[in-house]
Design goal:
Number of helices: 5
Strand content: 15-25%
Structural class: alpha/beta
Distance between the termini: 26 Å
Shape: globular
Order of helices and strands: EHEEEHEEHHEEHE
Length: 174
């Protein structure tokens, strides 16, 4: 995807002044990390292949789960690795490993954290061109150290998306 020079994402746009003030006090200043790049959409949504990225700590049953012991030992730190999720995943084939969220609700309706059914509907209705074969999950709560997520996990996910010719990624935060 081509990067549009001079455009960045405003992470506080919808947070409101009180929440922005409270949360931004615990985040390192912008000067300590590069700005979030803006990538221009290169083709219409109806012709694009889309992958989902969930922050719910999801893994396929039988695959290695996220490290919740790390999270238990240090509640200010989450597992910075990632998991690949099949496009045919269901609540019955997924495990949720995350102590910072109530995983019960997403096991009752996986679409809360990984809206595969909604994406299938958008593809069926021609709103989205295609659904990626693989979707992804990370643990959204990383505390103050996001370096492994930024340097390792995100580039690995992006590289796999490129190999699978994914055009767009939709973040499904919880």
């Amino acid at each position: 995807m081509a990067e549009s020079p001079g455009k960045t994402v405003d992470p506080w746009r919808f947070a409101g002044s009180t929440l922005t003030r409270l949360l931004s006090a615990s985040i390192p200043p912008e000067s300590s990390h590069p700005p979030i790049p803006w990538a221009a959409v290169e083709k219409p949504l109806g012709e694009s292949k889309l992958a989902l990225v969930s922050t719910a700590g999801l893994s396929m049953k039988g695959a290695p789960p996220f490290d919740m012991e790390l999270e238990r030992r240090d509640p200010l730190r989450g597992d910075p690795s990632w998991r690949a999720l099949r496009a045919d995943a269901t609540a019955a084939t997924i495990e949720a490993n995350h102590l910072h969220i109530d995983t019960g609700y997403l096991l009752r309706d996986l679409n809360v954290a990984l809206p595969l059914d909604r994406l299938r509907e958008l593809v069926r209705d021609g709103e989205v061109g295609a659904m990626a074969e693989t979707h992804y999950s990370i643990m959204g709560y990383q505390g103050r150290d996001t370096s492994t997520l930024e340097r390792e996990s995100a580039p690995e996910i992006a590289a796999r998306m490129k190999r699978e010719e994914v055009d767009l990624a939709l973040l499904a935060p919880v």
